[in-house]
Specification:
Elements (H helix, E strand, L loop, with lengths): L6 H6 L4 H6 L3 H6 L3 H23 L12 H9 L5 H8 L2 H21 L3 H16 L13 H28 L3 H7 L6 H23 L32 E3 L5 E3 L11 H7 L4 H5 L1
């Protein structure tokens, strides 16, 4: 007796095989894949879900004026990028763009892990990393030092593997009986798939909201020395013979201010430049 063509054909020989082939659950979607595809799927799914959550957990990502603000990143990435026009357009609505990117990354991660529209999410992940390759890591030379190029290749490999698996399933379904072929070719976007998509959508929103609630205080914009208040120079007669001003650092070392002869008092901006270790205490 001829051995079944593959797992898809073996499922067709079971009483509920046509149903499981037409509507695979999460476990079946993992069991029907080879280990290389499982490895790519697990790594990319977890990484993208974490990347989206991390953006919401970063208090500076959506806070204008912070060094990690999405608007500032889009402006930097657009310089010399082949997609400069698109990045400039997205920069006009930078906050909405940041929220959309984070939600899309979470959705891609969850959809990949749960097996919901795997081909569509693999193609979407490829588009995301190609966009990042043309913007964030476009100026990285040589190209293999940037991470987005290998992520794009990983998504492409997963996409090709999924397309081959789908083609093999279609060939296996043709080998079944008429009833099995009809069941396997039935509408695959029924109630069960709709519920799984709804669960994924709710999970994406909950992860984003939870990460935002746990985010800390955004970092304020760094003050420049010109914006700092200047201290009044002292006019006390003893200022001419005042001892050099020493400042300690975290290792117990002391540094002498180079401008201590200016009446014994430095402006706060000058103190920040000559002694950066103690600038936090001097400006506090």
């Amino acid at each position: 007796m001829r051995r079944p063509y593959g797992r898809a054909e073996r499922l067709l020989q079971r009483p509920d095989g046509a149903r499981r082939l037409g509507r695979p659950d999460v476990v079946a979607s993992w069991a029907g894949q080879s280990w290389p595809l499982r490895t790519l799927r697990a790594f990319l799914g977890v990484t993208f879900a974490y990347a989206g959550v991390q953006k919401f957990a970063d208090p500076n990502f959506l806070h204008s004026g912070s060094p990690d603000f999405i608007g500032a990143q889009l402006q930097r990435f657009g310089s010399g990028s082949p997609i400069h026009g698109l990045l400039s357009l997205l920069g006009q609505v930078s906050v909405l763009t940041g929220i959309g990117i984070a939600l899309v990354e979470i959705a891609i991660g969850l959809g990949t892990l749960l097996g919901i529209a795997p081909i569509a999410f693999a193609a979407l992940g490829l588009v995301v990393n190609l966009s990042l390759f043309l913007s964030a890591t476009w100026h990285v030379h040589p190209y293999f030092l940037g991470s987005d190029s290998i992520y794009a290749v990983a998504w492409l490999s997963l996409l090709v593997g999924l397309l081959q698996g789908k083609q093999a399933s279609r060939r296996a379904s043709v080998r079944g009986t008429r009833h099995q072929r009809a069941a396997a070719g039935a509408d695959r976007y029924g109630r069960r798939e709709f519920l799984r998509g709804a669960v994924m959508s709710v999970g994406t929103l909950l992860l984003g909201m939870g990460a935002t609630a746990l985010a800390g205080t955004p970092m304020s914009r760094t003050r420049t020395p010109s914006a700092l208040p200047a201290a009044r120079p002292t006019t006390h007669p003893s200022a001419k013979t005042q001892a050099p001003h020493l400042t300690g650092n975290s290792r117990g070392e002391t540094r002498q201010h180079p401008d201590w002869r200016r009446g014994g008092v430095l402006r706060s901006g000058e103190r920040q430049r000559c002694c950066p270790v103690a600038s936090g205490r001097a400006l506090g």
